[in-house]
Design a protein that fits this description.
It is a single chain. This protein is of the alpha/beta class and 382 residues long. The chain is built from 17 helices and 17 strands. The protein folds into two domains: 244 residues, Aldolase class I (TIM Barrel, Alpha-Beta Barrel); 64 residues, Arc Repressor Mutant, subunit A (Orthogonal Bundle), CATH 1.10.10. Helices cover 40% and strands 24% of the residues. Strand 7, helix 7 and strand 8 form a beta-alpha-beta unit. Helix 3 packs parallel to helix 4.
Length: 382
Amino acid sequence: MYVHIPWCVVKCPYCDFNSHALTGDLPEQPYIDALLQDLELDLADVWGRTVHSVFIGGGTPSLFEARAIDQLLSGIGARVNLSPNAEITLEANPGTVEHDRFEAYRDAGVNRVSLGIQSLNDQHLTTLGRIHSADEAQHAIEAVKSAGFARINLDLMWGLPEQTVAMMESDLLGVLAHQTGHVSHYQLTIEPNTVFAAQPPALPDEDTVIAMGERAAALFEAHSHQPYEISAWALPGHEARHNLNYWRYGDYLGIGAGAHSKLTLAQDNRIIRRRRKLVPHSYLNAVQDQSFVAEASEVGESDRAFEFFLNRFRLAAPIAYDEFETRTGLSRHTIAPTLEKAASLGLVSLSGDTIARTSFGARYLNDLQQLFLESDPIKRTL
């Protein structure tokens, strides 16, 4: 399950997520009430199924007090079959949490924290529009650790304006020194409809970016972190179970403003997607008539191969043909021509019953995924 909390103190210039700067009081209780009413509308589609992870993302969920998170998680547990071993993640920003609040989040049921560090360089933090300093980031990491969390992710961006390879290395070594076990290492990209898109900063050139990526990989390897996902590195056993489910084309239920759901109705061989209303006040007003869903659609068979590989090729682990057939309801024969083309280009290797993304395929992941968008495996086999 994904729970979206859309408010931030300020909107970062690179961010294209559904997040909104606060302009008044935080409607904490009304939003919790709306989330739980929203959840009830989808219970019939997930009845009897177990929820193995909950990710509370944003926005900045750490703007909500621990009592609100406790109420949310208790309400979820009362409505769905929440595994007693569920991974429950809360996103937090160093500039929005009183450090003693982490213990209260843990007591509320959160057992994993994802901290949006982004950089340990004050110059870059200012450029990125972050409201915390490098020192505050360092203190926040230690506060989460001292609160007793054994599972912690640190978000770190690279390829920043005016960043050198040495600066990237300093950031990464500073994060790895905390030994949290998981780092999401994202290259900064300029997304449409952001401040950076309207006023693009000067980013490092391609050679510098390649050098950064290679140096980062060497540092992660030296610290025993594995690249289990295209932008995530972890010690064995610290992989994010919630994110793994996304990349394996698993099902997820999303509640909150702009949240997405993908649910498989196996008995009907149907995959359905839903999106909640984007704007927070429209979402809150939907309580009146239960009109939380803004869009609903069905994933046709001709789209499933592309959707599957769009997600699954982000993971380093090889893909079994059985996994593809189970997740999509399609025969492996529908993708054979496209896979053969990908193999001829060196993007994948095919061996027995498995498909493996090559290192070349990882570097040119968009090109690999594009092959499945350009082809229509269903029509081709008719």
